[in-house]
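Reposting from the mailing list since nobody answered there.

I have sequence plus structure tokens for a pair of proteins and want to know whether others read the tokens the same way I do. The first protein:
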Amino acid sequence: MEQQTMLKEILKALDLYASDFRSQIAALDKKIEAIDKKVEAMNGEFRRKFVEIDKRIQEMDDRLEGRIDRLENEMNERFNRLETKIDNLRIELIETQETVDFHSAKIAQHDRKIRKLSQQQ
């Protein structure tokens, strides 16, 4: 009988310990669930923030590309105007050179006539 009593006492102690252990595990499980919910909420917030930041970056990229396109168009327009001015200057220089060549030929003609006249006298 004594052994049965001792065995019952041991079983009772083990049962109490197991009950206490189960309640601790249940408390830990609740804490883990609460942490999981917080982590899930934070992940949702991070995803939302990431999408928002990605959207802002895309908007900035679009604006920057627009500015670059406008700048390229403006530069092309300015280069075209500059090219037109240079072409006009080139034409003027060619015309001026032709005029100088014409006048040089006339001066040379007159010089020959003057020499010829001065030799005849």
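The second protein, same order (residues first, tokens after):
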Amino acid sequence: MTGEPPGEEFGSRAAGSDPEPVAVGDLHVAVDVDAAVDGDRLAVRSADGRIDVSADSLRALGRLGSLRESLPERVDRLLDRVPLGVHVDGVEVARVDPGVSAGPLARALGVAPARIDATGLAITVLRGRW
């Protein structure tokens, strides 16, 4: 990690602007977080009525499960009701849209309620972004 701020591909809002609150049940959440997970960049941003999670690799995304387990139960339950986009190296690999079922691949991989974008996942794997 170079310490440089992530590029615009790491979120849908303009760099330098304030995060836009996203309704999560009765909560309004504004997120603007940059982190490193084992040297891989991870960014979480709220904008346009959804939360975008962007990472350099699938491995970095895999570490988010333990983070979710540490949230209070009330907040964790509400996360399934928020539109969420998941990107690796600028390619959408999964998304959560409230009220839309996860599908068999996501359930088999244990990432429900997210729906897997098989094309995006294949592109990510072919790029070697494990």
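Reply #1 (J.P.):
I read it the same way you do. The two ends are 17 Å apart (CA to CA).
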